[in-house]
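Preliminary data (for renewal application), adenosine-5'-diphosphate complex.
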Amino acid sequence: MEFECVIGLEVHVQLMTQSKIFSGSSTAYGASANTQACAVDIGLPGVLPVMNCEAVLMAATFGLAVGATVNPVSVFARKNYFYPDLPKGYQISQYEIPVVSGGSLEIATEEGNKVIRITRAHLEEDAGKSLHEDFHGMTGIDLNRAGTPLLEIVSEPDLRSPGEAVAYLKKLHALVRTLKICDGNMQEGSFRCDANISIRPRGETALGTRAELKNINSFRFVERALHYEIDRQISVIESGGTIAQETRLYDPDADLTRSMRGKEEAHDYRYFPDPDLPPLAISRADLEQLRAQLPELPDARQARFISEYQLSEDDAAQLTSETEIADYFESALEQAGGESRLAANWINGELMSWLNKSDLLITESPVTPAMLGQLIQRIRDNTVSGTTAKEVFAALWDGEGGGNVDTVIEKKGLTQITDTEAIAGVVSKVIQAFPKQAEQVRSGEEKVIGFMVGQVMKATSGKANPQAVNEELKKQLLG
Ligand code: ADP
Ligand code: MG
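Predicted structure:
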């Protein structure tokens, strides 16, 4: 039997506010344990939560950006459960009426673009953290994270492969960073995902029973966890078993998922409207103001890159996958004399591979947009060939020439030979050294010219202008 998988994601986006969602304590990451949790965050008797307006505006901004309904009135609810990192016994969340309903994101798949529907996005507070390591066999509780504002974004079960799930996550990640509502730091848990997955026989329309993979904080781990889960569920069903509705944890070291607990049903949480908080109202005027302030969104930027800079869809998609990459590109282009495709190739190719190798962010690149732009100018005006330019790039990366492209080219003697006389000299030497190949070219085997060009390039250590070499070879061999 052939199976297909069905995936729906719940993404917890930590909103970039200075203070907590219902109190004035700081949200800064990395403080010593339990120094940033006040009486409200841990729900001591007699305290009252006060809504952080900034968090509401951020949630509404998200809703506008995904074409959702931002509900004029939404309601906070208590989600009741016991867990050591939740001393007050309930989490303030939204249930029946969330701040954002509907909306969608479009992802690129092998079969073309696909719309993934968003069910809702609701505001809630984060819980504390249990620390199981370094406690001499005991577990510690750090409540600093309690009350940190989260926007939980829930998708419809529209995703059909681990690859689509990752594409959706990356799209969402780029979006919330562009909107400046989340710093997107996955290692610190600012953007984390619960992946729900079930399988069903291909052609079946009813949903199978899902497993929920909790709190995965890397794109790669989401993909691996989902692949593992598909195989596991198929083998359970094929050996006659049934899938349990449960919460599972992914273990990246062992590359497998383990059952953590049976999955609660919503009614187990006894949701009820929080009596401490009035309904949350957002005025139409506020919404219109937020709409007017929306930045250019990644999809729009991608479309503009295609039309304004004549880039391919792939190049434009890669460049707009992160705001900082797109910013780098546009900034480099200011220096690059309109060579948009060359700039795109250099950024998506050479620059990315150096960044990956050095594990750096594009904002940390030792080669600045201005340097790359200047280098592209020098390719364009034939000072250096594309091949030599890579050498210049490497030198700039290592901080040579004080970051000045021309200084590096001069110091390393990399100026391209465009002087026809100099090229003619090398060409005639190469013709003498390879009489057989020269004869082949003369008798019409045009392809062999490539070999001859290669020999001239070799003789000039890559500094000759390949086009000039080509022309000179034709002139000397074919007249
Ligand atoms: P809960 O909080 O109980 O996990 P939610 O409604 O918040 O429930 O989230 C459910 C998520 O699981 C949604 O993203 C939804 O698309 C997805 N989902 C629901 N049923 C299935 C299923 N059978 N297979 C895969 N995903 C599912
Ligand atoms: Mg869930």
